Amino acid sequence: MSTPLEKLLRNARMDLIISRVEKDPSVINEIIKFLNSESRSVRFNAILVLGELGGQSEAAIDELISCLNDDDWSVCREAARTLGKVGNVAEKGIPELTKYIDDKEVSIRKAVVITLGKIGSGKHEAIVNLFKALHDKSAEVRIEAAKSLGKIGSEAYDAIPELVGSLKDIDWAVRSAAAESISEIGRNTEKAIPALIDALGDDDWRVRFKVMDTLVDIGEITIPYLLKVLDHEDPIIRKTAAETLGDLQIPDSNVIKKLSEMLDDKDEAVRGKSADALKNIGKEGLAGLTKILESADNDMKRTILSSIGGMGLEAENGIPEVIKYLREGKSSVRAEATRTLGKIGVNSENAVRALEKALKDSKKEIRREAALSLGNIGKNAKLSIPSLLEALNDKSPDVRWRGSEALGKIGVKIPEVLSGLETLVHDECDYVCESAITAIDNIEKS
Q1: Contact between 60 and 35 (Cβ < 8 Å)
Q2: In the chain, where does the domain assigned CATH 1.25.10.10 lie?
Q3: Structure confidence by residue, pLDDT tens digits, 403-421
């Protein structure tokens, strides 16, 4: 004889009860009857099981609404949670749920606002009470209220001004949830953009990131607002606005022009983010980067060259400009130009020729980077083989290391290459020996 359902509920054997429902859905009706049990544990566990069953518990909605008035606060809270798990078919419970938006028990208030979001109804009664919850004394409740408004979506359009206010909440998680919800409610609305722009200067980086994501989600209509604050007195706002424009990846001519000007900003972080933004925009942003190269100081030259390198093959048109900096400026600038050519010059004979010359630079760091870049170019750097063979005799072990590595990547099997690499198999530096052996193996396999 099977164990009575009441006993299973009393002992919280949810697994066995759910198993019975799977075999016979009519068992749900039996569970519903126990919502009126005199035993608190039976009532509580019956509610829990119905929550686990989710949408299957639609028939229990009226009784669950009645359980919101239970004398035991924990039963009330679980009834609220379960109504949320049942989903949007529990919309009729909104009037009763909202009575508990000011309940003295924080877990009940939290359960109510979460459930209102799960039901997902844009009814005025739900929206207004979630507005109220945005000002709850508990940050947990405020966070969930903001999230629930976002889950309701476009029907909660009138919530945007309230959520904008929450962008100034003392708790970063509330501010972050508010920004995300604004995005979910209306990705193509301009109404919240000014407040989001102000929030780009939030003291908490996590909120700034969420606001940036939200502005990117809203899309191209944010560009005029972002351009205006690139002159803002707060460097954090300038920096995050530049980064957002880069994340949008829209090759707008006004954006490129302004970001190029920002490469001369007085704040180093702003300059760096502006360079990154132009890189993210892609080949259209290349002109913005190269425009200021000549007048930039050495630190900024390195930053710009690095950004050009980060564009990869999209920056091929910038090869002539980059080559200039293999011959002039501080060695740190020449080294960065060398690395950049290895990233953007894969299909360029001019880049390979320039890197060959860099193999004879007076600075060993640049000779090493030149060999490394030729290796990155790979098979298209065949014409540099004679110069790389000379590099195998370099007095710097790092240059010999990268030179042998490059020859292995180029992969041309000729006697001169193999014999040159064999001379390094017994090099005084172990890592040079290992590189030479690996290069020979790669060539033999190619």
Answers
A1: yes
A2: 1-86, 112-218
A3: 999 999 999 999 999 999 9
